[in-house]
DNA sequence: AAATGCTTCAACCGCGCTGGG
DNA sequence: CCCCAGCGCGGTTGAAGCATT
């Protein structure tokens, strides 16, 4: 037994809206507002439409100041950064882009941005692989088919994108520590095994073959990078507060030529140098794609101290920057010139993001 | 010029959440 | 506390337009 339909489907018109219907709806809402009840609205307006359909039409097309198409590079950057940070929360992303609707952004991501990003990765990987004379595989060793069934699942795709970022930035992160993984249902285990079996080359092995190990230089960054997300938010931070308060997963060589353990957990089977190379390669790709300026940033102890939860989890706060609670609210308040959807329902949502993606 | 394939995007669908009764 | 109507969201669909053969 399914749920009751929201309206009488038989007596409701479906499909594209006519100019007359648009005009009717717009005129009514301009004059009376929505009345706080979309279900009752079509009757009042005299439209044979479902209330949900009216709402959608108004929000996505008829309401004032809607922008269609022509996404700017700045908007691209914001969408990409937020997608990597929070996933397909289109309404939240839309709230950061005045005049854009969640539907528009969702379509834009699915039809263009995603392909642009993955397409570039594909191209870049092909370049890497061509020097090896191997067949085309992505950085995870998978058959590099950007449109493969594996990527058709948005959840898996997002996971993959995020894992790429996460593992490149922090080779000792959760994703690279199976011992930290929660127990899975046997079917889930099986699925993961199947996915892994597709990987002819483990991630690091692939890069090990592709690239020589770097020689760390005293005082230099060794490959961990500030993600575009972090850079973007850092920029926003600066513009909002006039200071930089974000932190990034940047590994440093201290004066003794050893890793600064404040920021980098002790190695456990994965060579930092390889991770560094992976990161720099990916950074180049992503920076190129996002056209985001990479900002040199030296994290301070007191800044790290803000993130006790990361310490407890024995991982550095990685460069995939999570909106800190107060920051996000403040940012939302100042950037969200648009009305509509509440940007954040509560701090809890983002605590979940932090926990969920960093665990 | 016609057929076919591909891309785009408006609209629909169904589910989770919320608040009022 | 429970139920239910309505809202809002994310995923999906399918028609229209465009590109290619």
From TrEMBL:
Query: Which positions fall inside the HTH myb-type domain?
Result: 9-62, 63-117
Please name the source species.
Quercus rubra (Northern red oak)
Question: Where are the compositionally biased (Polar residues) regions?
Answer: 124-133
The principal location of this protein is nucleus
- Residues forming the Myb-like domain are 9-62, 63-113
Q: Name one GO molecular function term.
A: DNA binding
Q: What is this protein identified as?
A: Uncharacterized protein
Tagged with keyword Metal-binding: no
UniProt keywords, alphabetically: DNA-binding, Nucleus, Repeat, Transcription, Transcription regulation
Tell me which Pfam families the record gives. Answer: Myb_DNA-binding
Its annotated compartments are: Nucleus
- Annotated GO CC locations: nucleus
Question: By its UniProt entry, which InterPro entries does this protein fall under?
Answer: Homeodomain-like_sf, Myb_dom, SANT/Myb
**Residue ranges of the region described as Disordered:** 120-150
């Amino acid at each position: 037994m399914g749920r009751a339909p929201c309206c009488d489907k038989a007596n409701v018109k479906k499909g594209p809206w006519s100019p007359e219907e648009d005009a009717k709806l717009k005129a009514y809402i301009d004059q009376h507002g929505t009345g706080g009840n979309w279900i009752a609205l079509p009757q009042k307006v005299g439209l044979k439409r479902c209330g949900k359909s009216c709402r959608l039409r108004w929000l996505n097309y008829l309401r004032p100041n809607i922008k269609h198409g022509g996404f700017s590079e700045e908007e691209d950057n914001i969408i990409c950064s937020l997608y990597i940070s929070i996933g397909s929360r289109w309404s939240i992303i839309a709230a950061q882009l005045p005049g854009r609707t969640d539907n528009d952004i969702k379509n834009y991501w699915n039809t263009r941005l995603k392909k642009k990003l993955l397409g570039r990765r594909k191209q870049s990987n092909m370049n890497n692989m061509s020097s090896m004379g191997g067949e085309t595989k992505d950085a995870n060793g998978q058959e590099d088919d950007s449109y493969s069934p594996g990527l058709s699942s948005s959840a898996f795709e997002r996971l993959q994108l995020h894992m790429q970022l996460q593992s490149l930035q922090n080779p000792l992160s959760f994703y690279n520590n199976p011992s930290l993984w929660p127990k899975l249902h046997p079917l889930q285990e099986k699925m993961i095994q199947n996915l892994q079996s597709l990987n002819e080359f483990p991630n690091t092995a692939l890069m090990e073959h592709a690239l020589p190990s770097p020689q760390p230089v005293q005082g230099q960054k060794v490959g961990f990078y500030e993600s575009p997300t972090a850079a973007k938010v850092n920029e926003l931070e600066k513009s909002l507060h006039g200071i930089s308060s974000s932190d990034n997963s940047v590994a440093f060589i201290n004066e003794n030529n050893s890793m600064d353990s404040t920021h980098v957990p002790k190695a456990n089977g994965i060579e930092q140098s390889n991770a560094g190379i992976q990161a720099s390669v990916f950074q180049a790709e992503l920076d190129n794609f996002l056209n985001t300026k990479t900002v040199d940033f030296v994290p301070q102890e007191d800044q790290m101290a803000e993130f006790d939860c990361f310490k407890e989890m024995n991982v550095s706060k990685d460069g995939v920057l999570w909106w800190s609670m107060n920051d996000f609210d403040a940012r939302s308040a100042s950037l969200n010139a648009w009305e509509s959807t509440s940007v954040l329902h509560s701090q809890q949502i983002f605590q979940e993001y932090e926990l969920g993606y960093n665990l």
